[in-house]
Amino acid sequence: MAKRQTKYTLVQHTGYSIGGNQQFKYGVELRLINSAPEIKAVFNVGGYLFNTYEEARKVEESENYPPEVKGIIPHVRGTFVTHKGMDEPIYIPVVKG
Q1: What tens digit of pLDDT does each residue of 20-64 get?
Q2: Do the Cβ atoms of 10 and 59 come closer than 8 Å?
Q3: In sequence order, what are the beta bridge partners of 32?
Q4: What is the pLDDT of residue 95?
């Protein structure tokens, strides 16, 4: 049996992706993933993969509230992509360069 890996990623906030609340349309939230297909899906589309909860939580906050965001409604700079192996759309960050 293959060893399960625990990783974390960012997905579209479920307040929008499941609940339909427009205030969360451009928000992300942390999600634990631990199956090889999920990890591969995130990797293949260019999403974040974190080894620790703390690292993922820190980036979740900075992505939701970049310097130009004033107030409490999150607005990430990146985009989202749906993938059949994931329940919520995967967050794809903007690559600086």
Answers
A1: 999 999 999 999 999 999 999 999 999 999 999 999 999 999 999
A2: yes
A3: 8
A4: 79
pLDDT of residue 81: 96
Q: How many C-beta atoms lie closer than 10 Å to residue 89's C-beta?
A: 19
Classified as helix, coil or strand, 17 is: helix
CA distance 12 to 43: 16
* For the chain, counts of helices (H) and of strands (E): 3, 4
- pLDDT of 1 > 60? The answer is no
DSSP string for 48-90: --BSSHHHHHHHHHHHHS-TT--SSS---SSEEE--TT-SSPE
